[in-house]
Design a protein that fits this description.
This protein is an alpha/beta fold. It folds into two domains: 17-114 and 219-312, Rossmann fold (3-Layer(aba) Sandwich), CATH 3.40.50; 119-217, Putative methyltransferase TM0872, insert domain (DNA polymerase, domain 1, Orthogonal Bundle), CATH 1.10.150.170. Helices cover 41% and strands 14% of the residues. It has 13 helices and seven strands. The chain has helices at residues 17-24, 41-49, 63-72, 90-96, 113-117, 143-149, 152-163, 168-178, 184-194, 206-217, 219-233, 247-260, 293-298, and strands at residues 31-34, 55-60, 80-84, 102-108, 234-244, 281-283, 306-312. A seven-stranded mixed beta sheet has the order 3-2-1-4-5-7-6, with helices on both faces. The longest helix is centred in the C-terminal third of the chain and has 15 residues, at 219-233. The two termini are 28 Å apart. 44% of the residues are buried.
Length: 313
């Protein structure tokens, strides 16, 4: 889902669609979870491939996305259950539908095209809008509250850790000196001023907006929790596919998959294993699967996508 800024109004296109279905291998009578339902593009593919009796549980925290997904998957209404909630609470949702294990799960991380293109949500700096950035509009904390309430030190940590922003200290200092901020344009212009108007391939505010979005929605923390629960929920032979869009997400996914596919996770210098860890999964993809040149040409927002897949032993 996650993307860089692009032309507003572009239609939603499921990223790495064919590759995801190829690796998930949806089959008749299987039970599957789309933990980031979005507009339902991947969900439709899973439901079609698992016909006539495959079941799908679709999760999303964005009520607007859920409304769209209900319409786009209406023909499969008897085989899909859609719930408002986070994949980081997967076990709660599985208990609600009385599933003891699942045959496959997809996580398509980050912000979707339709969220970026809806200026009122505050994810993009392409148009002036309130600094919101919440996936779940029922959530209390907005990006504006973080910007206007955190200390200079706390803002620096967010910008550095979540945005990998080289001028984190200067931007955080400028924010504190010029508060309050209410709109996306105000914040973007401030970051541009810190960079003295110099622009590279992407707008200087891109990393700041990414960092604030990740912090506002606790995305990296939820990703770690979701990976643990998804792996535990897989039936033997079940597969987990994760599509990430920037290095922070991909690093978490890659390291988790590597750890869970090894029998020992003791430090390399330790001669005798004491951890007692046993591999629970095997890697299905060698490295990361990336979009083809053709897909990137058709959907520029897919250019940074990486797909990794594991299978439960």
């Amino acid at each position: 889902m996650d993307t860089l800024e692009s032309n507003p109004g572009s239609p939603h296109q499921p990223v790495l669609y064919q590759q995801t279905l190829e690796y998930l291998k949806p089959a008749n009578s299987g039970r599957y979870v789309d933990g980031t339902l979005g507009a339902g593009g991947h969900a439709r593919g899973i439901l079609q491939a698992s016909a006539p009796e495959g079941l799908l549980l679709g999760l999303d925290v964005d009520n607007h996305a859920i409304e769209i997904a209900r319409r786009s998957t209406a023909e499969f209404a008897d085989r899909i259950t859609i719930r408002h909630g986070s994949y980081s609470n997967l076990m709660v949702h599985l208990r609600a539908v009385q599933w003891d294990c699942i045959d496959g799960m997809l996580l398509d991380l980050g912000v979707s095209s339709m969220q970026l293109d809806n200026a009122e949500r505050g994810f993009s700096f392409m148009k002036d809008a309130p600094l919101d950035m919440r996936f779940d509009e029922g959530q209390k904390t907005t990006a504006a509250e973080l910007i206007n309430g955190l200390s200079q030190k706390e803002l620096t940590v967010i910008l550095r850790n979540f945005g990998e922003e080289p001028r984190a200290i200067q931007i955080a200092d400028a924010i504190v000196r010029n508060r309050p901020f209410e709109s996306t344009t105000e914040l973007a212009n401030l970051v541009l001023a810190v960079y003295k108007g110099k622009r590279g391939k992407t707008h200087p505010a891109t990393r700041t907006f990414q960092a604030l979005r990740l912090a506002t929605n606790s995305e990296l923390e939820k990703l770690s929790e979701g990976l643990e629960q998804a792996t535990a929920a897989l039936c033997s032979g079940g597969r987990l596919a994760v599509i990430s869009f920037h290095s922070l997400e991909d690093r978490i996914v890659k390291q988790f998959f590597q750890r869970e596919s090894r029998d020992c996770i003791c430090p390399p210098e330790q001669v005798i294993c004491t951890c007692g860890h046993k591999a629970s999964v095997r890697a299905v993809t060698k490295g990361a699967v990336i979009p083809s040149k053709e897909e990137i040409a058709q959907n520029p927002r897919s250019r940074s996508a990486k797909l990794r897949v594991i299978e439960k032993i």
